[in-house]
Amino acid sequence: MSAEATTPSGTAGGRRGHRRDVLRQLGRAAVLRSALRGRLPDAIEHLAQAHRRHHPRADLDTLRRAYLLAEAAHRGQFRKSGEPYITHPLAVTLILAELGAETTTLTASLLHDTVEDTEVTLDQVRADFGDEVGHLVDGVTKLEKVDYGAAAEPETFRKMLVATGSDVRVMSIKLADRLHNMRTLGVMRPEKQARIARVTRDVLIPLAERLGVQTLKTELEDLVFAILHPEEHARAEELMRAHAAGPDPLAEVAESVRGVLREAQITAEVVIRPRHVLSVHRTRLKRGDLGPYDYGRLLILVAEDADCYAVLGELHTCFTPVISEFKDFIAVPKFNLYQSLHTAFAAGAGQIAEVLVRTQAMHSVAEAGVVALGDPHRPCEGEPGSDEGERADPTRPGWLSRLLEWQRQAPDPDTFWTALRDELAQDGEITVYGETPGAAPLQLPAGATCVDAAYARHGQDAHASIGVRVNGRLATLRTVLRDGDTVHLLLAPDGSSGPSPEWLEYAATAAARIPIRSWLDSMRGTEGEPRQERVGPQEQSAGAGAPAVRRAPAEPSEEQAAIVAGAPGAAVRLARCCTPVPPDGVQGFVVRGGVTVHREDCPSAVRMRAAGRRTLPVSWRSGSVGCRVTLHAEALGRPELLADLTEALAAHGAAVLAAEVEPPREQRVRHTYTLRLPDSAGLPRLMRAMRRVPGVYDVTRAARLQP
């Protein structure tokens, strides 16, 4: 039984079995009672009217039967406020009905606490109302079976996410359930109010935002704001009351806009959309003292998409637009299906009026999000279904698919919880595009990098990323993307690459961090070090964004070419800062798990010697040995330079692991290549060949970490 439901002690204990039998009889009688067929109980008349406003032809008999079963099941239970418990599922269902939810969702909402809090079984719900209602009730029940608490939250919300992925209507019911509980939170202790408010703020409000249910989100925000910041909430309410005491200055602006649109023969509805309490508070923090137009925005509703742009043209022609405020979320909808045109114009006395322009259909989705889209599993009227008789689920936005993917990879609930909160905390979104025709746009959080785009596009296949082009130019994987960028990922065809630990430093999304961390953990050996050969940050910053880990070759590795006197059994690693190769003069330094070999003139080696670190003598094995090396080519910029350099590399058998071309400065350009050579003895010849390329005036070995 949930914390909200209580049962008088006289109806429990030894009478429980008798109550179960009576309840089943009452429920069956309520469902099958033919005398009431066609007549709705008074308690759901208001609910039925709200439902019919959105669905005029809805069959209300299912709702009648669901109410009668719920009322019989909850009879004798009371909320902590003292009200009969049935008032709660009724209120939750009314919230959803007013948003436009279809009949199946409302039926499940009426029954959403019966399986958890009463003797009604899930089998009974399925038998009486069908598998679809049973599936939704089961999803909500699973969310409620874990108490809210510091230790329980991670697993609770993991289940919530899984249930949402199965059917977003489960989350719709959960959000409405939380909204009604927040409305009646005053009967609880202040510390419990604060705890529930924080969970609502950190997880449920961001989820409501991502599901596009703005009506629920804004009310939840205000309720949380009042509990966690009562003084600021009171101040914002005081400002709103003072503003409402007189005529709204936006009314005159709205009338001017109506006149402009009438003259242009554009049929439109122009209304003033007041800001809610938290929005007023945020606007005051952003702008200081609020102006007369800062308490609301103009909302213009039209019939067709083309009318939106016609309205925009008239506004920008007849008023002075603030171009920096213009955003087109119709051509590029937001991640939560939201569509509107946003603009602003000067409306006299230095004041700015903000405007939203959308169609009636867009407005419905903007207010109710996925709730307004109805049943995701059946074709809409006049809409062709898929081969399986279903349509693509519009209520499964890309962000949700990403969350579902990485929650399956999260190794433990705490990792999942941290990642979920980080993901939901992102309050900005960007849209990036692929170069391949037909590739779907990606919605990513603001601040996302090419690594994030790689995993959003390719999932775990992004482990093989070896390069990236942003807007047609080579870039590093750590490049921060901007809204509208075109991104093309380059993947190793043979799967020979893997991510580097450094990727975690600039992966902004859990969808990238969790699979990267899982891959690295799976590659770790007994000493806690990756079993792969790891290349250095030179490759990491390569223009192609080359991966920083490659599987070790079958032949002996170059580390085996170094012999450390006094530590014959130690694991040897060649330092990635200076990439020593035979016949360089080298020294070894004892590190955790083995010995790292540096060139004698390496700045890192110089610092360690100056600090008194003990050195070990190192020599090279005789005979041919392959090597990896990073080279810098300084050149005068010219066409075909890159092609000529790569041709020289190929002619000497060098495999390019990573490459970076820095932007030209004063007609000079620097190329950085990380190479693998079949024989280190060929390195001097290769460097001479690179210097002979026209325009190249110097070729040097990397001697320090690249930025």
Provide the helix percentage. 40-55%
Runs in which pLDDT lies below 50 for 5 or more consecutive residues are 8-36, 146-152, 377-396, 525-557
**Beta-strand fraction estimate:** 15-25%
What overall form do the CA principal axes indicate?
elongated
Distance between the termini: 58 Å
Counting helices, strands and paired strands, the structural category is: alpha+beta
Q: How many strand units?
A: 23
Integer average pLDDT: 77
Whole-angstrom Rg: 32 Å
Number of helices: 25
Largest sheet: 6 strands, mixed
What does this structure look like?
The chain is of the alpha+beta class. It has 25 helices and 23 strands. The strands form 5 sheets. Strands 1, 2, 3, 4, 5 and 6 form a 6-stranded mixed sheet that branches. A 5-stranded mixed sheet has the order 8-7-11-9-10. Strands 15-19-17-18-16 form a 5-stranded mixed sheet. The radius of gyration is 32 Å and the shape is elongated.
Characteristics of this structure?
single chain, 707 residues, alpha+beta, 6-stranded mixed beta sheet, 5-stranded mixed beta sheet, 25 helices, 23 strands, elongated
Topology:
Layout (H helix, E strand, L loop, with lengths): L15 H17 L12 H10 L6 H14 L12 H13 L3 H8 L3 H4 L4 H8 L1 H14 L8 H14 L1 H16 L6 H21 L3 H15 L1 H15 L5 H14 L5 E6 L2 H11 L8 E7 L2 H14 L1 E2 L5 E2 L12 E6 L5 E8 H9 L29 H12 L3 H13 L3 E6 L7 E4 L4 H9 L6 E6 L2 E2 L11 E6 L5 E2 L11 H13 L10 E2 L2 H4 L8 E2 L11 E3 L7 E3 L11 E6 L2 E6 L3 H8 L4 E6 L6 E10 L4 H11 L3 E7 L6 E10 L5 H9 L4 E6 L6
Parallel strand pairs: 2-6, 7-11, 16-18
Antiparallel strand pairs: 1-2, 3-5, 4-5, 5-6, 7-8, 9-10, 9-11, 12-14, 13-14, 15-19, 17-18, 17-19, 20-22, 20-23, 21-22
